[in-house]
Structure formats: structure tokens, C-alpha cells
Sequence to fold (698 residues):
Amino acid sequence: MSSRWSEGLRTALTLRLGLWYAGLFALSAAVLLSFTYLLLGRALAAQDREVLESMLQRYGVAYQRSGLDGLRALVDADESEGRHERLLVRVTNDKADIIYFAQPPGWSGFDLGALDDVRTSPAGWVELANPIDDSSLEVGTRRLPRGITVQVGRSSRVRDEVLAHFRARALEVGLVVAIIAIAGGAFVSYLALYPVRALEAATHAILETGRFDTRVATRGTRDPLDRLGDRINTLLARLERLVRGMRGALDNVAHDLRTPLTRLRNVAEGALDEQEPAALRDGLGRALEEVDRVNATLTALMDISEAETGTLRLTPEPLFVAAVVDEALALHADDAEDRGIAVASRIDPALRLVADRTRLRQVVANLIENAVKYSDAGGRVDIGAAATPETVTVTIRDTGVGIGPADLPFVWDRLYRGDASRSARGLGLGLSLVKAIVEAHGGRVDVASTPGQGSAFTLTLPARGHGHGPTPPP
Amino acid sequence: MRVLVVEDDRSIAGFIATGLRQEGFAVDVAEDGVAGLELAQAGAYDAAVVDVMLPRLDGLSLVTALRHAAITTPVLFLSARHSVDDRVKGLQTGGDDYLAKPFAFAELLARLQAITRRGQRAVEATTLTVADLRLDRLTRKVERAGTPIELRPREFALLEYLMRQPGRVMSKAMIVSHVWDYSFDTGTNAVDVLVHRLRDKIDRTFVPRLLHTVRGVGYVLKVE
Fold:
């Protein structure tokens, strides 16, 4: 349903865009043609008048130079040369008698009587309309000495024909323009809406299949629509990770809580059989302990899942590495001392990094706890740190039992317990949490170990923090 | 001291109310946000325990409304969600403290006492005494039956904490928060180790034993 709706929207958008393009294109072509038409008409009219003026000038000069005879001779000569073929020439004397008259054939319909009225007025122009074919006759009048008047006229018929021809051509051009406009509009809207179609195809696929691994096809043009596609892809990648994380977390929670819940149940059931009040109280106490353990497991699982999906809220601040390590150390110093393990931290007190204080302390405390837990009396735990301009590394090295090569790749897995740790107290989530928190900080954690000689865990963290949001590697 | 408990889960509400009554509080219980708000506005309470998730009106809105009505009753929020965001939001809304479910009653009591004490700093004695155990806060000297006992700073901090309210059970989380200034449950055995060391110094060679483990709850200093 929604796809049909977006289909309709998209078609409407394509159509609108195409129509806009075609309309604008046609409009500008029409404006251009009209303007050309107007200019052409003007130019033709100006040219006609120029011809008339030059003839009048010619006859005027001839008359002034050699009198009526000279004028007559020139008019005759012009006539014989065919210059009057397209002109009306009329010469009158002071008594309004027509001395000379020439008119191209077929110029009927003009009311030439009007020319007499013009003759008496000062030199000027008159335009006679031909009611038959809508053409007009433009006549220029020149008054010469001794009452002689020369009138030269030209019909607009020739330029009307030219303009009519132009109009006919313009219609043809207009047709071509319309075709180009429509085809261009379709093409442009198709091209412009390509990213939108890609976007729609991707979202449609996601809605249909429910899979978040679909991506919007982008062209790398870096235009706003292409960037939008990239943004949506980033969003999808984040969503995909989140959804996968959530699904995993749910499975993990269900699985990881069953064991402590079973213990809790067993403890409670066992307590029910007790008759002695003291034993009953002890059973209840143990049940409470199990409840706390279930709760701690749940908290750890949630933390891991949030860190892995990038939803763990971190508050990065500038920290002194040595201070954070000392705080973490304080939690396990007594335990280490009681068990005869020497713990030493040698870190430059001025060494700083940007990280979430509570979480970093949790990570270091976790690693120290492990180091102490898997060491025997007489063992050592050494904590050191080093810095490059970009990173700070913290190394927790112990002389404990170490981790076998077979177990090493799995130490980060949730609830994984190697042979050495199977009997040790703990949730089995510590190292998973360490890894998740460190990666949420944009860092990484590595382990090197030799069985029987000890292990070294190295945290590598960006010295200047990791922006605002945690973004584990893809 | 009158305390209002707004909690929709009857079992939890009953547990809190019974526990508080045993401690000498007068307790009223409301089972939804609207009823809770009405009670809080009508009666003068010394403190309120408010669940964040409530029917009809959630806890945060309830406290916001209270504060708008210029009622400054200290509020302890309860929430099943563990994220720090909730905590911050609760405190920004006008809550005075925050306790995550599931919780130990001892911790609820301690926090409730802390928020009602706030502002009226009690004058605390410089010397604490439980049976023949004496602790001097100024000289930081501890002796039992006249025998001086050498304590490390953390051991001293733990003993002082337990002696301040003898007979009251302190949970591991409370001890971690007091001695190490950690605000979250670390899931470590640090408290057990510290208690073991302290017990070794104050109890091992003396009778009767004073430092007791209450299984599943925490530790208490008392004469049995």
C-alpha cells in the first residue's frame, strides 16, 4: 500500500518536474522567436523608409541641380532602369497637376487622392491603408522649390510577405522546440530523480524483506541527493548493527541467565527441605546471593550489548591515566597483598587521555582483578603505560598461570572459561565487557600469553577520545 | 517521620512499607501516579519513595508536578532500568536520589535517611563506641578492650562506616560506594577481602565477635 502511494507520488513528481522543464523551455523559445519577429519587422520597415528617403534625396538634388528637366530626366532614367518597379513615384507641379506618375502593377485599392492633401503640407510621411489585402502604402513627400512636389511610396506587401514567411517557419521551429522540450523534460526529470528512485528502491526492499543489509545505490557525485543516499546508508549500517546486537543480546540474556536462575532455584528448593531455622536462614541468604549474581550478570550483559551496539552512554573527559589506574588498583590491592602478590604501577603521573572515567576504571579494575586472580603467591602484577601522539597504551602484565594457545582466541567470548579459570569465581563476562567498552571508546585490547609464565593485556586507546558517539569498527 | 511510597507493584510496595514501619516510619502507599500526586500534595511528608514507571502518571511527571506546586519533599526514585540516563533524568526532574531495582532494603533505608538528613547536618560524636570497641575520628585511633589496633585507611573507613550505625546492615554496594567512592556495583570480592582483614584485626583475638556477615544482604557491627 505504501509502495503504491510512493509510486504515485514519484510519478507525480516526475511529471511535474518534466512539465516544468518543458514549459520553461517552450516559454523561453517563444520569447526568443517573438523578439526576433519584432526586430525583423522593425528592421524591414526601417530599410523601406531608408530607400524612400534616399530616392527623395536623389530627386531633390537632381531638381536643384538641373531643374524640372533634370528631375524628369532622372525619373525617366530610373524608370527605364527598372528602379520604379517596386515604387510609387509621383511628381506634381504648383497647380497640383501630375507631371509624372509611376506605380507597379497590381497596386490597386489605395486611395491616392489623399496624396494631394499631403502635397500641400510640409514634407512628411503618410501611410495609406489598402482595405483589400491589409497592406499599406507608405509615402514620403518632398517639397521642392517652385511648387514642385516629389512623392515616393512603397507598399508594405513585400515585407509582409517576408514576415509571413517567418511566421510560417516559426511555427515549424515551435513544433521542434516543443518536441525537444518534452523529450528534454522527460530526460531531465528521469536523471534528476535517479537518486530518489534509488532511495525508494532501497527502502522498499527493506520494508518488503525486513533486512537491513540493503544499501542505497549512490554515484559518488557528492551532490545533496547523493549525500542524502550516503547518510541513509550510514544510518542503515548503524541500524543493522543495532538490530543484530539487540537480537544477539536477547539470545544471550536468555541463555546466560538460565544457569544462575537454575542455581537460584536449586538453592531455594534445598532451603525448603531444611528444618533448622539457622539452615533455613542460610538457604535464604544463599538465594539472595544468587539473585544478586543474576542481577550482576544482567547488568554486565546489558553493558556489553550497549557497548557493542553503540548505545552505551559514555561521558569522555580528560583523565590522568595514573590516577585512574590507582583507583582501580585500590579495589584489588588488599586481595593481592593477602595472597602475596606484588602489584606495582609505574605510570608517568602527567600522562593524560580522554575517556569515560567510570568505564575506563571498570576496564582496568577488571584486568587487574584477573591478573591477581590467576597469579600465585610470590607473583607480580605490573602496570605500565606509554603514549604516542595519537594513542595511549596501558599494559597489565602478570606472572600468573597464563592462557593456553587453544584458549587464547576465545578469551573475549562471553561466558568462555578456559581450563585454568573454570574453578575461579566470576561471571565469565569480564573480558567481553572490557573488549566492548574499549572498542566503544574507539580503542582495542590485545593479549599475549605464555602458559606458566603469565599474560599481558594491552589497552590501546585514542589519546584525544573518540568523538561523541561510540562507533565500533564495521 | 512520614513517608509516602508510590509503587504499583503491591508486593514491592508492601515490602517497603513493612520494612519502613518496622524502622518506626509512618507510611502511606499509593498504587498509581495520580493517587500518589494527590497524597503528596495533601499530606506533609518527610520523604517520598517514587517508582519511575507508574500507571496513569509516571514518576518523573509526578515529581515535576510536585516541584511546580513548590512542594520540596525529598524524593527517592526507584527504577528497573539501570542506565545512567535514567538516573540523570530523575535527578534533573527534582528527585534527590535514585535506586535501581532490585535493591536491598538496607540500601533503600540508608538513602532515605540520607536525603531526609540533607540540610540539617547532625553533630556527630568524635568518638564511636560499640561494646568494648572504640574509634576516635580525630586521632584516627582504634582500640578494643584497651588494646590499640592498627588499621589501614580503608579498614578504618569501613569500621567507621559500620560503627556510625551499629546494628544496621550495610550492603556491599553501600560499602563499595563509601570506601572506594565507586558508584556502581563492581561485582568484585573487594568488600569480602576488606571485611576479612578488618575482622582479623578487631575480632580474631577478642570475644564476643562484633563484625557479622548477613548472608545475601551485607555486613553489620553489633553485639549479638
Notes: The mean pLDDT of chain B is 86.
